[in-house]
Structures are given as structure tokens and as C-alpha cells.
Amino acid sequence: MSTILKASQKDAETISILAKKTFLESHSLSANPRDIDTYIQKHYSLEAMREDLSSETNIYFLIKHGIEPAGYSKIVLDTPFQSHKTVNSTKLDRIYILEKYYGFGLGKELLDFNIDLAKSKGQSDIWLYTWKENHRAIAFYQKLGFEIIGSHDFKISETHINPNHLMLLKF
User: Which of 4-13, 23-32, 77-86, 157-166 has the highest mean pLDDT?
Assistant: First the structure.
């Protein structure tokens, strides 16, 4: 049994722990360990999570399997991408599930929850970036109707950039 909860400041430590672990599980092979560690410390520290959660534009959710945190997501409403002219577009900034919960359907459940929220807020689509070498994630998104519509260079460090797909799901 799973539960999805809107995250708040009290969840900063849980999200920080989840973010570090899931990023390592998904991206540890995408750059050298020093660059990965620097990225994690900068973006997923407890202080960084507290700051990110304090922004009114960021909406975080936790998904639990039973009572255990299994993953999280972050969306930002009304965030167009690159040359996209639609103002009412949602960015799926992060969605991660711990590897030990793969195959439980939690990723789809959390994504569907975010999509339903975006639709209820009058959004026209949802978009994201995903690392081009994360074939599992790409297949997951495509199965749910996302299309690759562009590319984006994701900066891991001053010396390392990962090529990403820009993917879009129109409602």
C-alpha cells in the first residue's frame, strides 16, 4: 500500500536523504565520482532542501510504501521550456523512486498524481529532462505518452555536462 503526501519543511531531511540516494542510483555512472559528490552536496544537502522547499513555486511530494519513504517528486507550475510559448506548462523537475521499490508501480503512481495535479491547475502539458543514457527512464516516460522533442545539456560540474532529452506530454 502506498501513500502520497505533500512535502513541507518538516520533510527536508527525508527528501535530502532520498535525493542523495536516488541520484546516486540513477546517475553515479554519468560522471566521475568527485563531480557527482560535488553536485549532490550542492543540490541535495539538508540546507539546499530546506531552501528549495521554502520556495512557493516548488511543489514536492513524498511517496511511501507502507510507512517507508520510497521516492519523491518536485514540480513547478507555469514553467515554459526553451522556445515553448505556452505559459501554463508544468516542469517535472524531479521524480525518483528508490531502486528497491522498482517494479511496485510507485513511479507511475507518483507521476500520474503529478499529472492530475497539473491538469487540475489548468496546465496544458508537463515536461522534463532525462539523461540520454537512462534508457529505463526514457522507456518509462515514452510508455506513458511523453515524446522526445529536444535536448538539453545538464551541468553536473564546471567540467562535466550530461546530454539530456527534453520530453513532453501534452494533455
Answer: 4-13
Sign of the four-CA dihedral 23, 100, 2, 148: positive
Please state, in angstroms and rounded to a whole number, the distance separating the CA atoms of residues 18 and 60.
12
Task: Please report, for the chain, the start and end positions of each structural domain, with discontinuous segments joined by +.
Answer: 2-170
Give the CATH class of 2-170. Answer: alpha beta
With beta carbons less than 8 A apart as the criterion, state whether 24 and 40 touch: yes
Please give the DSSP secondary-structure letter assigned to residue 8: -
Strand order, beta sheet including 125-131: 2-6, 58-65, 68-76, 89-97, 125-131, 161-170, 147-155
Round to whole Å and give the CA distance between 22 and 118.
24
pTM above 0.85, yes or no: yes
Alpha carbon distance 58, 53 (integer Å): 7
Cα–Cα dist 168/150, whole Å: 9
Cα separation, 161 vs 100, in Å, equals 28
Q: Residue 81 and residue 133: Cα distance in Å, rounded?
A: 21
| Residue 74 CA to its chain's centroid (Å) | 6
pLDDT digits (tens, 9 = 90+) for 77-103: 999 987 777 889 999 999 999 999 999
Residues 60, 74: Cα–Cα separation, whole Å: 4
